[in-house]
Amino acid sequence: MSSRKPGTSMTLKTIYIFYIVAFFLFLFVPLIINGIIAFNNSEVPSFPWQGGTLDWFYSSDDGRMGIFNDIKLLRSIGTSLKVSFMVAILSLIVGTTSSFLFIRENFWGKQILYIAMILPLVIPGVILGISLLVFSNELIGFLRSVLGPDLANIFITILRPGLLLVVLGQFCFICTITTLVISSRLRKFPLELEEAAMDLGASHWDAIFSITLPQLFPAIFSAGILAFLLSFENFATTLFLVGSKPTLPILLFSKLRFSITPEINAISVILMLFTSILGLIAVSVSENKKY
Amino acid sequence: MEALETISEINAKPFPWFRIICLAPLLLWIVGLLIIPHIQLFWLSFLQNRHPEEGFYMGNYLRFFTNPIYWKILLRTAVYAILSTFMSLVICFPTAFFIAKLLKGRWQIGLIIIVMLPFWISELVRTYSWMIMLRETGVINWILLSLGILSEPIEMLYNDNAIFVGLVYVSLLFMLLPIYSVLESLDDSLIEAGQDLGASRWTILWEIIWPHSIPGVMAGCIIVFMITLGNYLTPVMLGGKNSLYFTQTIYHQFIIAWNWNQGSAFGFLLLILSSFLVWIGLKVSRQKLTEVIK
Predict the structure, then answer these.
(1) DSSP bridge pairs for A52
(2) Mutating which of B10, B23, B29, B134 best tests the A interface, going by the most A Cβ atoms within 10 A?
């Protein structure tokens, strides 16, 4: 190193290290405090420390409802899990087929289609939400006029704001992410392997299902976890499409409007553990893999 | 003739259905869930709320320009988004440089994973953490009171600074990762060459590191700007019901005022503003959208 003024360089280095430490404190202190407070024996989510308690997890008192006894909360977790699972599966299927199309096929208009596929990432979530809300409403009106009110009723119940719309709304932009992740791996995958299988008599389908997809599995799996996490935390798009069954973020948001209790800290602790573990699994599965 | 073809040739022909099966879900998604709904949203924004049968109507857009509160809120939202983007750039660049250039191997990967951890956690939890820090009965007030710095608790929540902190906090990673990845790709020997030629620290930073990192910086700025401009949760949670954020105005028109036409017009204005600013960002940095989002 050719620093000419060792004195200033030392101070600079110290300041730099301090800065990095401060950055990580800024990132983690709020979350750690949030977690600690979940165990504080106090009605207000704050300090001073008044002894440990698990009330905010287990209590069944009305005043101190623990998360494991809060039926509404548990139900919303169930809804969220269901939605996220469906979004992840749907985004993986469409993400995989679209990746094959973009990487392996050539056709007129491919570039335009690719740009259109990326656009959901540039559209604010709120707008994705309202556009689907408007769409479903228009579709209901259209079905009514074509099928007559009686026949249309069958479709109307599922087209109204509710699970289906939430899944479709989240799918709209999450599928872009799975497509990007999977196609970046598929691009690196040698076509020769597939061709070799086909020379040995496998059909195109066989080659894809027995050679390419298993090799891409780590990438697909971690894209699936990413999709699941993105769906699980989605708020803006869901807000406009949710019906009578709220997802977890929607329920927590409406709870926060009325009162702020350490119950939210307790659910934060669970969420932090759950998402970190899923995230770490996704990273460790896709890390150091060729494709 | 067909009998003469080898097995390989038969199989090498693209499966006739393959393209269709791959294309169909993509088209359903793009056309059915994106293009048609947005066209309908656009159409709806040109109808009058109470009398849609009267046809083309500019009033929803005119109201935005004639009623100062609406365009002021949009302007305010854009200013927030730009300031937060700039702030996260300032905060993230040194950290990204530290992780990319001053750490090696396991430490590097480990620290990147640690940085990513908070961002897998839901935005609601992250924002809530700041709520309990900043509240009148919150942690920061408790610390300041116990230290004797304050004698009365002050409300630090539900103001512009709280929104600003929250917006920067929830979007940091999207700035850090793109900058990290361009800096990681910068060859160390270029920096060493600069040092051998006697360049000062700042010259190296300005002449070698910064130009190389511009693509990552632009990508980070565009993504953070987009996320911040369209954010709903953080401004409402930290700014309260009157946070005057444009997404909240859209929500209000749709869900509370039940004026979908007005809401659609506002939605489109937000979309136009964000696309326009992203387009300017891409033009200035001479990049393509497909390269920024990789």
Answers:
(1) A40
(2) B29
- A204 touches B at CB < 8 Å: yes
How many structural domains is chain A composed of? Answer: 1
Ramachandran category for residue A9: left, alpha or beta (phi over 0 → left; psi -120 to 50 → alpha)? alpha
How many Å apart are CA B42 and CA B64, to the nearest integer? 15
| Residue A150 within a domain | yes
d(CA A174, CA A94): 11
Kindly report the CATH number assigned to the domain that includes residue A114.
Answer: 1.10.3720.10
Whether B34 and A119 lie within 8 Å, measured CB to CB: yes
Homologous superfamily assigned to B66-292 = MetI-like (1.10.3720.10)
Task: State the Cα–Cα distance between residues B255 and A197, nearest whole angstrom.
Answer: 56
A278 falls within a domain:
no
Separation between Cα atoms, residue A48 and residue B147, nearest integer Å: 13
pTM of the predicted structure, to 2 decimals: 0.89
Say whether residue B116 is in contact with chain A using an 8 A CB cutoff: yes
Domain boundaries, chain B: 66-292
A125 has a chain B CB within 8 A of its CB: yes
Min Cα separation B237/chain A (Å): 8
A264 lies in a domain?
A: no
* Position B3 confidence tier, pLDDT thresholds 50, 70, 90: very low
- Partner-chain contact A101 B226, CB within 8 Å: no
Q: Is residue B138 within 8 Å of residue B131, measured between CB atoms?
A: yes
Q: Is B248 on the interface with A (CB under 8 A)?
A: no
Q: Are B62 and B209 in contact (CB under 8 A)?
A: no
Residues 6+ apart with CB under 8 A from A163: A79, A82, A83, A243, A245
Residue-number span of the structural domain to which A123 is assigned:
71-258
Query: Which phi and psi angles does A247 have, rounded to 5°?
Result: -80, 170
Reported ipTM exceeds the 0.95 cut? no
In a domain, A31, yes or no: no
A284: nearest CA partner in chain B: B113
Cβ <8 Å between B11 and A1: no
Residue among A12, A116, A229 minimizing CB distance to B30 = A116
| Residue A290 pLDDT grade (very low, low, confident, very high; cuts 50, 70, 90) | low
In tens, the pLDDT along B247-262 reads 999 998 888 888 889 9
Residue of chain A minimizing CA distance to B144? A47
Report pLDDT for A288: 60
Q: Write down the residue that tokens 């691009």 correspond to.
A: A187
Q: List chain A residues with CB under 8 Å of B229.
A: 124
* Interior angle at CA A269, CA A267 and CA A272, nearest 5: 110
Q: Is B73 on the interface with A (CB under 8 A)?
A: no
